[in-house]
Design goal:
The chain is an all-alpha fold. It has a domain at 42-93. The protein has helices spanning 9-19, 44-56, 62-92. The protein is elongated.
Length: 93
């Protein structure tokens, strides 16, 4: 019986960098359908803090403020991801 050894993080990074520009090395893209809306449950203390900040920022309700905050955070995360991806591509290329 043969067992596969686990790759180290460095080995995984090197493999990904080598395959970054090789489309045949990657699986088909995953497609995600957007739902109309989603519900999110948060603890009462956090909800109270969010409601206070929504009023402070003169938003019509907590949902509007949370939507804006989540949107901003997602944009930051996406920008960071793109930056890292470009850095890897530059190093590999």
């Amino acid at each position: 019986m043969t067992t596969k050894r686990k790759m180290t993080e460095k080995e995984i990074d090197e493999l990904v960098e080598k395959q970054a520009e090789d489309d045949s090395a990657w699986e088909k893209p995953v497609r995600v359908r957007r739902n109309k809306s989603a519900s999110l449950s948060i603890p009462p203390e956090l909800a109270a803090r969010a409601a206070f900040l929504a009023k402070l920022h003169r938003k019509p309700n907590m949902e509007a403020w949370l939507t804006r905050v989540i949107q901003e955070r997602i944009e930051l995360e996406e920008a960071a991801f793109i930056g890292v991806k470009q850095e890897i591509t530059t190093r590999a290329g």
